[in-house]
Amino acid sequence: MLTVENLIKQYGDFTAVDNVSFDASKGTVFGLLGPNGAGKSTTISCISGLLSPTSGHIRVDGADVVKDGKRAKRSLGIVPQEMAIYEDLPAVENLKYWGKAYGLRGAALGSRVSEVLDHIGLADRAKDMPKTFSGGMKRRLNFGCGIVHKPGLLLLDEPTVGVDPQSRQRLFEMVEAERDAGACVLYTTHYMEEAERLCDELAIIDHGKIIAKGTVGELKSQLAARDVLQLNGDFSEAGIKKVIESLTGRGISDLELISQEAGAVTLTLSSASRHLPAIFEAITSEGGSVTETSLRSPNLETLFLLLTGKELRE
Amino acid sequence: MSFLYASFRKDLARWRQDPLTALLWLGIPFLIGGLITAMVDGGDGASPTGILLIHDQDDSLLSGLVAGAYSQGQLGELISVEQVSLDEGTERINAGDASGFLVIPEGFTAAFLEEEPAVLTLKTNPSQTILPGIIQDVTEILLDLGFYAQALFGPEIEQIQNADSDVVPNDVFVAGIAVQIQGKIDTVSPHLFPLAFDIEIVEPPPTAPRPDIALLFLPGIVLMAILFSAQGLSADYWKEREAGTLRRLVSTPGLLSRFVYGKALAAAVVVGLLGCVTLTLGFLYHDVAWSKFVPSVAWVTIPGVGLFAWFSALQMLFPNQKSANLLTSILLFPLLMMGGSFFPLDVLPDWIAAIGRMSPNGFVVDRLTKELTSPTAWTYDAKSWAIVFGMTISGLAVCAWRLQTGFARR
Description:
By secondary structure, chain A is of the alpha/beta class. In chain A, 38% of the residues lie in helices and 29% in strands.
């Protein structure tokens, strides 16, 4: 349904999207996971026709977004990060307007608008102005405007930013419903939990480049069930090197240093909790001390940390 | 076409939510127009008058004639004479409550008849500029008149003075005096009124009836409402951009040009309604021929949409909504001033009027003024209509281009 090939988007000397390629199929949710500024929204903007790619190709249902934009856009629905609704137009009129923008007419439009109002839980507020709605209701209407024409490809650009947990749950259900109805959903987020919950396939993106891609299971397997251990305290760079050599020599063979800053070190190893006493002892014997310990079991966030040496939300 | 209609209905429905703004667009021109009309047409027609206080110590026939001279003919429309006591007169003139205070001394008549000097005291109000001067000039003319009367008819006056005042003069005495006076007039007439040349009075060519001055303000006031609405509505592109709807629009197959034309059609309805309301009231008040109503509404609506389009295009050139609104607001007032909304173009200095007629609203005002004040039917001038259509279409094209080239995508 969606093919992105060697997509590059440059602003002068700055490359926002650097040779990104991926495919997404109908009936699946494809996630773009990455921190703020990683290039997710730029990628979405290129796919939706808001930005022209510097190079590369994007095809939606076989239609090239640049060369055959009108046909590509007919199959495309978007739910932007910020609201994109008319606050001074009744909810039902919002849906009708965007339906017409996508070419729906007459009875087909009327029945689809009714369906969407039911689907997003606003049937009883159809004639009310969105300016009188709660934040969650506006989010749902924003979502409804993106699916009113039953798009084959639905783009969701960080749709849960600033959304309360209840509305977030409702949104997840709506996304899953679209996927179950056969749509291809491209979902960008920097929340690992969302990606794990919703996405059938994922691409992890950082500095405009895809650094890992696959199903959630495949990506997790890259961690080889290793935990991530973060230690804060007083230790030198040379001291930590000796600690790692010492521990490796004592049989903790998969111990790996991910990052080290002043007073903080991040390590990865399997069964970390079992090895904690030995790690503390080694640090103490090298003259250091530990003031804070953080142990995380393997997940997408730790994978990102492993791949980039930094937190997903930095 | 359907998306154009959808955009038109959408904007009309949205703008209908804000009737207060439309009332302001109407209210300000009405307020200004009402004030101008009241100034030009209004009031009770009375000219400003001055007050001349007179204290007559002589209380004679002659002093009464002097006092009465200020109330004669057109002078009486300017000066109101009040007899007062010396104290009251002094107090009121000192308080600035009158234009002048004239004191006629006791023995004034006797001094006049005996050709002896007499002093009339005139005190004027320095805070007034024109009326005290008129009173002073009139007083001097009266004194000159008295001098010449004494010089010409001195013997006759003396005979009257010497007559017994308690006895009614007989017919022979009166007839004698009258004959003497007539004789002197006949003698001096050829010298005083020599007919040195004949005067041929040529009738000036008939001129067109001068239009009602307040009517000259009507086109400017109508265009003021149109300009306010065009500028106000043009901010909607920025509102849409801030609401994120323009970005969503770009990702749809709906054409941006149809979106622009839909918005322009909605603006045409608003501008047309404002034109209808202001012109209806103007036609009723000034009794303009109703056959000119429909072309007048069309004449202000089409360029109104053009002004909306150009204001919108200008707004979209700016990096933020605040500076865009500020610039168009600043631009509004020179357009109003030079385009004949505050003062009719005919009363502006020639060079300003020439510039004003080249401004889009001034062009419309000028033509509308000519049509409304002309006694003939509306003249359909193809060139003028082509200009306003051209301005409108080019403005809309610039809007569509600006949306396409980045404004909608940010």
